[in-house]
Design goal:
The protein has helices spanning 21-34, 42-47, 53-60, 69-83, 93-102, 115-122, 147-156, 170-179, 208-218, and strands at residues 8-11, 106-111, 133-136, 163-167, 182-186, 204-205. It is of the alpha/beta class.
Length: 219
């Protein structure tokens, strides 16, 4: 059986497949406080999820001079690593990925995480072999620059009209638009899905189960 509409399905990671939004938000807030800065609001800290680390910190803590970004990044990683044992895949993600693999889609990840960070979370038995390709913010351009998707499409020789991007933030949906691909949003991650409309996603899923059912029927 061949895919109905899309050959390549690309997922964001944090907030889409991985239930890490709260930990990332708290880690950004704690890192700023460590440096004697005002704590970013929940809205500021959660908005940057999906961006590369440098871009995220620049937005969340705009008063910080760029020469201190490495220091803030180190404090962010300290807090995230201390809490990462609390983070897991959303319920139903493994079943979703297995069902898509059985339909012969190529599956990929395009994420604001670092290569090291993504490899660490993918290095578990349940995820090995599920993804055919991955791109991270530190090895290519960060979202919403289309380079991540363009590279993945070239890797698998898939046209934009045969590619689908799935994510929980406007950064993901704008990435898809910039690359000329279709998109699907999920409302259970970092961004309010009320902001998704201008990017015209094909669908907004409110749970992994709903995402699973929509993809099996439409992808």
């Amino acid at each position: 059986m061949r895919p109905q509409q899309f050959d390549l399905i690309v997922f964001d990671w944090d907030g889409t497949l991985f239930d890490s939004t709260a930990v990332i938000t708290r880690s950004i807030q704690a890192a700023a406080v460590d440096l004697g800065l005002a704590q970013p609001s929940h809205a500021q800290a959660s908005y940057v999820i999906g961006l590369g680390l440098q871009e995220a910190l620049a937005y969340a803590v705009p008063e910080l001079s760029p020469d201190r970004y490495p220091e803030l990044g180190q404090r962010y990683r300290h807090h995230y690593l201390a809490a990462q044992h609390q983070v897991t895949l959303f319920d139903g993600v493994l079943d979703l990925l297995a069902a898509l693999k059985a339909r012969h889609h190529w599956l990929a990840v395009a994420t604001g995480k670092s290569r090291r960070g993504l490899d660490e979370v993918l290095d578990v038995d349940s995820l090995r072999g599920l993804f055919d390709g991955t791109r991270t913010a530190d090895e290519t351009a960060g979202k919403p620059n289309p380079q991540m998707l363009n590279e993945l499409m070239r890797e698998f020789a898939v046209a934009p009209e045969r590619t689908l991007m799935i994510g929980d933030t406007t950064h993901d949906l704008q990435l898809a638009r910039n690359a000329g691909t279709a998109s699907v949003g999920v409302s259970y991650g970092a961004h309010d899905h009320g902001s998704f409309g201008e990017f015209a996603p094909l669908h907004v899923a409110h749970s992994v189960r709903e995402l699973h059912d929509w993809l099996i029927k439409n992808a």
